[in-house]
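Changelog-adjacent note: as of this version, every example in the card shows the full chain rather than a window. The one below runs 187 residues end to end.
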Amino acid sequence: MSVEKYENLLRIVTMLKGRVPHVEKFNVFTVLRSESDEVRLHSRFIGSLIDPVYHGLGRAMLEAFLRQLDVPDFPLDGAQVHIECSGVDILVLNSRCGKAVIIENKIYAGDQYQQLRRYYDTIKQQGIQDIYVRYLTLDGHSPSKESLWGLDQELPFPLYCCASYYGHVRSWLEEAAALAVRNVNVR
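Full-length structure tokens:
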């Protein structure tokens, strides 16, 4: 191979490096820590992708996720994402405007007694007025009456609803893939 071909190859590599934005190395496995923990694996994965501080994509992933979960008009300025906070699998909290989204992520585990009711009451006691509750399962089935403890009667749609990996998360991941197209590590 001639020297000119190497020079052309080096120019192309240099040009491509300049087009890929530099962000901190995003590695989903460092976020997940324990691949065998089914309960925390999915919540950590979703939480890391929707949390604007993890990946350099700003609020776009969070905005798309909330849109897919039918959470209307949630102010993203000042929003924070918490994993396993006060027992809640994923908590999106905006204390500035008094709004929160509780996401109970159920893959294989059963409901706990008054689980959703406890989470809702705990967040409400923190002074948060507008609370959206999402019960996320593989197929979108409803939680047990014991878990809700009347919460479904108290909170009309869109404050409370069920979501599924098959529909909501899958659609969000398709949208997320398009959002991450220029971020090599997240893509």
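Structural remarks: The radius of gyration is 20 Å.
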